[in-house]
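JOB MANIFEST
job_type = single_chain_structure
chain_count = 1
residues = 148
[input]
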Amino acid sequence: MNAIKNTDIYALSSWCLWSLSLSFCVSCGSYFILDNSQTMFALTLRSFHHTRNSALPLQRLFSKKSLPTLTLFTKDPCPLCDEAKEVLEPYKHRYIFQQIDITLPENKVWYDKYKYDIPVFHLNGQFLMKHRVNTFLLEKQLAKQQHW
């Protein structure tokens, strides 16, 4: 007899609150998650352990279309950063945008690395470009992410 345990979990991100229903199958050790649209996702115990501690992987897991994360390393003032954000405007529907202020104490590592190079951009945690937006490179990498 398969025993299923149900519970509700919530994942809070900066742009939304996900209400999820979590079921655990005792016999096979799998987690089954239902999102708001009742779409079921199966996760192994190991993969659930990694996703439960962060809202972003949960948000990506349950988004209809998984979008890459574009991170801008910036500070205030930064005229080149302002210019870069304007150039990025037409692409904003194709990525999740995140800004990291390198002058904040918790971002000292990024400050030490990029203090002379902002704006710096990462796509899904990997360096993409710095100083100015290269729209050709951005377009190429976003297209590659879509086919992944």
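[summary]
The longest strand covers residues 4-12.
The helical segments are 45-51, 55-62, 79-88, 108-114, 135-146.
exit_status = 0
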